């Protein structure tokens, strides 16, 4: 059997977060905190470019109550030695 040439992955997880706000309005200092546990999903693809080099791409979405966030990333992996 040959080695795997590529892979696709889905991730579904939860993200626990906490943030603190500090601002000033008309000379008054205003402080507040927020926290929560919100869902997170990601989809990643990886493929072999050569026996030692893999390229990948990933899209992640954080469904944070205050501000949803989407991230995009690219990866290059190099494996030393023969495996």
Describe the structure.
By secondary structure, the protein is mainly beta. The protein is built from no helices and four strands. It has strands at 6-25, 28-48, 53-62, 69-78. The chain has a four-stranded antiparallel sheet, with no helix packed on it. It is elongated and about 65 Å long.
How would you briefly describe this protein structure?
The protein is mostly beta strands. It has strands at 6-25, 28-48, 53-62, 69-78.
Structural class: mainly beta
- In spatial order, strands of the major sheet run 1-2-3-4
Q: What percentage of amino acids are in beta strands?
A: over 45%
Distance between the termini: 14 Å
Largest sheet: 4 strands, antiparallel
Number of continuous helical runs: 0
Mean pLDDT: 88
The helix-strand sequence is EEEE
**Helical content, roughly?**
under 10%
Low-confidence stretches: none
Outline, from the CA principal axes? elongated
Number of strands: 4
Cα-atom radius of gyration: 20 Å
Give the helix/strand layout.
Layout: E1 6-25, E2 28-48, E3 53-62, E4 69-78
Any descriptors?
83 residues; 0% helix; mainly beta
